[in-house]
Specification:
GO terms for molecular function: O-methyltransferase activity; S-adenosylmethionine-dependent methyltransferase activity. It comes from Dictyobacter vulcani. This is O-methyltransferase. The protein has one domain: Vaccinia Virus protein VP39 (Rossmann fold), CATH 3.40.50. The chain is 41% helix and 18% strand. Strand 4, helix 7 and strand 5 form a beta-alpha-beta unit. The protein is globular, with a radius of gyration of 18 Å. Bound molecules: S-adenosylmethionine and magnesium ion. Magnesium ion binds next to loops. The site of magnesium ion has 4 residues, from loops.
């Protein structure tokens, strides 16, 4: 029997991913509505994928999350996945710099039935994070905003967490460049490289990166806070 070509292997990986998505992470009307609202508002399609959304829910459930913090809301797609892992008295705060995005998020949260347990705060995350110290600790923190600030977001995430909290950051593979050190990197890539290094070396964290987006070329950095 002949070896599969690289195109056949890519197609097989794609089929497996679609099957996992369909079986374990189907999108209901609320999630599909958030994607449509984003398209209608002309927002970029840079949200996480359904498997990542379900993974966020699995992790939120694993740490019995009652308080979740998200940095970077876009249209509320990841926020809906996260909010649905909360108990009815749980709370998700999502930080978003763009007021137009925030309006779309609020409408999509309401449409998805999670308006009661979610709050969108508008502003630059680095300005808003210091105002959250009395509202934590957060059980899960999801970082998915401007990449250059990821190292500072990590500092804040640890400050706002407890032992057992889970800190997740998106786009921490980026075709592999997020693990490289070169002289010619832009500020976003430097932020990602530093984030991976900081989470790998920080003795307070246990960390792994999973390549689980865009045909394994991007993915999530997942860190558990062991102690402060
Ligand atoms: C990749 S999108 C978030 C995607 C979303 N988490 C999802 O998967 O559905 C990044 C979002 O972060 C917002 N953002 C960028 N810089 C920010 C900052 N400094 N503070 C807060 N939000 C920021 C952008 O406006 C954008 O809506
Ligand atoms: Mg992202």
């Amino acid at each position: 029997m002949s070896e599969a070509t690289s195109e056949q292997q890519a197609e097989q990986r794609h089929q497996i991913e679609s099957t996992i998505s369909r079986l374990f992470a189907p999108e209901d009307a609320g999630l599909q509505g958030a994607l449509q609202a984003a398209r209608d508002a002309g927002l970029p399609e840079i949200q996480i994928n359904p498997i990542q959304g379900k993974l966020l829910q699995v992790l939120a459930t694993a740490c019995q999350a009652r308080k979740i913090l998200e940095i970077g809301s876009l249209a509320g797609y990841s926020g809906i996945w996260l909010a649905r892992a909360l108990p009815t008295d749980g709370h998700l705060i999502t930080l978003e710099i763009n007021p137009e995005h925030a309006e779309v998020v609020r409408a999509s949260f309401a449409n998805a039935g999670v308006g009661d347990r979610t709050e969108v705060r508008v502003g630059a995350a680095l300005d808003l994070l210091p105002t959250l110290t009395t509202e934590g600790p957060f059980d899960l923190i999801f970082i998915d905003a401007d990449k250059a600030s990821y190292p500072q977001y990590l500092d804040w995430a640890i400050k706002l967490s407890r032992a057992g909290s889970i800190i997740i950051a998106d786009n921490c593979v980026r075709d592999g460049v997020a693990f490289q050190q070169t002289a010619t990197m832009d500020a976003d890539t430097i932020g990602l490289v530093q984030y991976n290094q900081l989470t790998r070396e920080d003795p307070r964290l246990t960390t792994i990166v999973l390549a689980n987006d865009n045909d394994y070329t991007d993915g999530l950095n997942i860190a558990v806070v062991k102690a402060h």
